[in-house]
Amino acid sequence: KAGVTQTPRYLIKTRGQQVTLSCSPISGHRSVSWYQQTPGQGLQFLFEYFSETQRNKGNFPGRFSGRQFSNSRSEMNVSTLELGDSALYLCASKKQGEGTDTQYFGPGTRLTVL
Amino acid sequence: AQSVTQPDIHITVSEGASLELRCNYSYGATPYLFWYVQSPGQGLQLLLKYFSGDTLVQGIKGFEAEFKRSQSSFNLRKPSVHWSDAAEYFCAVEDTAGKSTFGDGTTLTVKP
Predict the structure, then answer these.
(1) Which of the pair, A14 or B51, is modelled with greater confidence?
(2) What is the band of B79 on the pLDDT scale with cuts at 50, 70, 90?
(3) DSSP code for A15
(4) Which one of A26, A41, A90, B10 is separated from A109 by 20 to 30 angstroms, measured CA to CA?
(5) Could A43 and B96 be called an inter-chain contact, meaning their C-beta atoms sit closer than 8 Å?
(6) How far is A42 from chain B (nearest CA, A)?
(7) Handedness of CA A105, A109, B1, B6 (dihedral sign)
């Protein structure tokens, strides 16, 4: 079974631009979560989508948004990029989104903002 | 709010030696606890998880962890470390709503 895939793997943008990252969960998984990983702040939860609805949200500004499609694929958008948005963005999927489910992570998208 | 503390930023052990990585959590109810490993440039891989029941849980790659409610700890152990275990290790707690909080990670270096 294919794992979680994220595209693109690497991205370079400039301040003020916007970016869209994509995540394809494991087949049959309905929950997709997004995380931001930086050396200074560590791993921080952005949001979780389940059956096309945002179910949980972390403490990030409104510039960070996401959505989930009917096939469970998810996209994350960051508008008006800032230097501090440079990070590894990780996506993770779960089957039903319950706490007892195992969370499977993708390899991440490395975003660099210049 | 839940939180996770990994007191050791960096640990170095010799190959073949035993390993213990510490994790302390703060959560009001019975937590869901996890240990993940991350190799450079990779995503996270689940090593083991605790939900309830036996407080000693076995994971992949020979790792185990023990949940101690009285100490709010969930330390990760391995009796004999291999060079391939060098990586960054994250402890995490998840609430019943499915929101995960991660520790800052411990980087493990293995000396030959």
Answers:
(1) A14
(2) very high
(3) T
(4) B10
(5) no
(6) 5
(7) positive
